[in-house]
Amino acid sequence: MSTRPPLPSRRRLLGWSLSGAAALALTSAAVPLGIAPARAAAPPPAAQLTEQDLKDVHRIEAYLTGVKSLKARFQQFSQNGGLIYGNIYLRRPCASSTIRRCRC
Predict the structure, then answer these.
(1) How far apart are CA 24 and CA 18, in angstroms?
(2) Mean pLDDT of 33-40
(3) CA-CA distance, 53 to 59, in Å (whole number)?
(4) Strand pairing partners for 74?
(5) 27 and 70 part of one domain
(6) Region 25-47: what's the mean pLDDT?
(7) What domain range includes position 100?
(8) What is the mean pLDDT of residues 46-52?
């Protein structure tokens, strides 16, 4: 039996999302005013991919390019602390010029 690390509480997750939203709002408000953020994060170094890694990336990319539609189930916490379940449907736009006649 494997033990999983404990999941963060909803209150902690909400605190993370609020602090992230506040940081985004402050940064977004400062940019139009010409005020630069205090410290800009340096971009991470580029990953060194092996030939097999590149083959895997191309294989995954080809698979995802071929996906035309998908359906997924999800669950989320409601405002009163209960769980809500649902489905999400995605469909890639048709590349055809006659979208109304598309059978994708």
Answers:
(1) 10
(2) 60
(3) 10
(4) 86
(5) no
(6) 65
(7) 52-104
(8) 90
Q: Are 73 and 93 in contact (CB under 8 A)?
A: no
Higher pLDDT: 5 or 92? It is 92
Residues 56 and 86 in one domain: yes
The reply to whether 19 and 58 lie within a common domain is no
Q: What domain count does the chain have?
A: 2
User: pTM of the predicted model, to two decimals?
Assistant: 0.39
Residue 96 reports pLDDT greater than 90: no
> In terms of domains, do 34 and 62 share one?
no
- Residue linked to tokens 């953020």: 37
Does residue 59 sit in the same domain as residue 103?
A: yes
CB burial readout 26-61, b (16+ within 10 A) else e: eeeeeeeeeeeeeeeeeeeeeeeeeeeeeeeeeeee
